[in-house]
Here is the input.
Amino acid sequence: SSGVLFDGTSLKEWTLENTDASKVMLKDGAIRFEKGFGWLRSNREFKDFVLTLEVRFLNGDANSGIFIRSAATSDREPARDGVVRGWPDNAYAVQAREIGQDSPTATSPLAGRVMMTRGIAPPPKEIGFDVDGVRRVFKPMGEWQRYEIECVGPRVTVTLNGVVVAQAEISRLSGHIGLQGEVGVVEYRNISIREVISK
Here is the structure.
């Protein structure tokens, strides 16, 4: 089956986790995160699927992520800097961040990389990550970037603006979709999911 997770008019498919409407709002048909942590969790869980969405970053340090196969529960532990970020405690994430400030030697993960949230799940096994491809297809700040995230069995494939940029294997085989509140102003729109029935 397939469905729209966000139609531009309401958050009825989502639950706010560790955040509030002053930081996550609807604006011009998009979900807008304005600084502050926490996350939006899909009400439903999904197993195998293709998730498509558009995201744009509205300032240079804008940083977010798309949680996949997430537990519904959140991490209440402070990080090393003492701040409780309130993200899922057992999930994987596809990095969504403005890369304009990344240097060619940046050790920070670039957009599209499959990562884990702190805690329970084993780290993803990275099969491939095309740094040059990310830099080539990433659009200038303020323009919409299109992500397609396919999860079938343990395999995750991330397509950014039409180019496959990441493949990894993860150990969680079902869970929620999530959108991360982190740093800067980030908007998401046109979020849809198509469930894949394995043979």
Q: What stands out?
A: The longest strand covers residues 185-195. The first helix runs from residue 131 to 137. Helices lie at 131-137. The mean pLDDT is 91.
